[in-house]
Amino acid sequence: MAQETTTPHTTRPEFQKIQYEFAAHLRNPEQNPAPPDIEERRLNVYRELFYNNVYNYLGNAFPVLRKLYSTDAWRSMIRDYYACHVSHSPQFYQMAEEFLHYLQEEHETGPEDPPFLLELAHYEWVELSLGIADPDIDWKRIDKDGDLLAAPPVISPLTATLAYTYPVHAISPEYRPEAPPEDEPTYLAVNRDLNDKVHFMKLNAVTARLLALIEESPKHTGQQHLEAIAQEMAHPKPQVVVDGGAQILGDLKARDILLGTRRLD
Q: Does residue 15 lie within any of the structural domains?
């Protein structure tokens, strides 16, 4: 339900004024009176229906985040989002992204908010977005059985390579870290495989860098990427990095993070 942002009430037909008054009341009944001559019983049905749809959808979209809050605190946050956030998409399935924007830009931090709130919300949104994505994969330009060292590897468009300060993949009501680990960021690859199952893979820094290079230089071969990593590491035996990297490439391919190699024109 989009909020009014531009057109003044005075320039609208009467029926549109009533529609906007009705929508504003449903969003925030304490601040916006209902249009006249609508039965309170009917109003209550609409108020509960619209709010509960939003409440239930966001609880399902962010299941781990929801479990970290008391019922009262979660309801309060959803109520504030519902009343105050101006959505930029009319599509119901994009509400999770709108809620993420709300958390990033509008939500005022409270005592029940964990320090990893934004990172966890982003991680759960990525999982959801990959689950409903519908990319156009040009299989004619991909060799599923290509040599990942000799040709350019192709990352699935249903893969997101992520870096967080907190181990968001491990967070639960039983594990709520108060500070991020001191050793290194948490690198993750979240992907939807060819059977439409969403998975995550914890990455080390080398694998995360390899995926980043494949994205940055899609025409380079796997061998070139691994040699670049060996150079960055100043490794005394670059072939060791290449040999180890070949196994990593094979593992990424088995997980459908890589789809194969690019067919050269």
A: yes
